[in-house]
Amino acid sequence: MEAQGRLDEADCDGVPKGVWHDECVFLYAEREARAGNLAEAFAACERTVFGRECSYHLIRIGARAVLDRPLSDAAAIAVAYQGLPRAADAQRLFWKTWFRERMEKDEPVDPTGCPTQDCVEGARQTVLLTLNAFARARGDAFCDGSVPDGRSGKRVLWVEGPETAEWAVEFVDGECARRRGQTRGPKAPQVPPG
């Protein structure tokens, strides 16, 4: 039915109740979401046993649909995902998807202009995941000042605004202290020998 482009929810009535029926409704919900009928799409998700997963899938579809648009446009779209019964954290998921997948397209993460804390948190998680990947890939060299920046000519994956810089410094300090076997916080007093 999906391949022939005629999937309506009524088409799912012929599928026996259970997983395959719910999968049919899931496909219908996806189609409705892509057509912009979000209320119907999320209502269809609610009629399946995997309503939360279905809702999350639709949120990701929405975020991916506006990857090439400015943050203000994405923010206008994200409002539609408030108050979903099975996805109280829908806004956070939207922004996490939007920032991460934009970065994969070589668009730097920039939390400037984020309208909500969920937006800021989505940017923050993306930056921290990137720094974590640098730390794993670079090993000890990560702590030798080799984090990419605009001055070195290396690719910058995030806009180094005040908020982002704070996250980056906090992560790098903690990661490098861990690599040196140190704990965060003040050093213990040194006892003189003898």
List keywords for this structure.
mainly alpha; about 190 residues; disordered C terminus; about 55% helix; elongated
Brief overview:
This protein has 194 residues and is mostly helical. 53% of the residues lie in helices and 0% in strands.
> Structural class, please?
mainly alpha
DSSP helix fraction: 40-55%
What's the rounded overall pLDDT mean?
82
Parts with pLDDT < 50 across at least 5 consecutive residues:
149-154, 185-192
How would the global form be characterised? Answer: elongated
* Number of discrete domains: 2
Task: State Rg.
Answer: 22 Å
Count of individual helical segments: 7
Major sheet details? none
Distance between the termini: 84 Å
Encode the helix/strand succession as letters. Answer: HHHHHHH
Tell me the β content: under 5%
Tell me the number of strands: 0
Summarize the structure in words.
This protein has helices at residues 19-34, 38-46, 51-65, 71-78, 90-104, 117-138, 162-179. With 194 residues, it is mainly α. Residues 149-154 and 185-192 have low confidence and may be disordered. It folds into two domains: 1-94; 108-180, no CATH class. The chain contains seven helices and no strands. The longest helix has 22 residues, at 117-138.
Per-chain topology:
Elements: H1 19-34, H2 38-46, H3 51-65, H4 71-78, H5 90-104, H6 117-138, H7 162-179
Helix pairs in contact: 1-2, 1-3, 2-3, 3-5, 5-6, 6-7
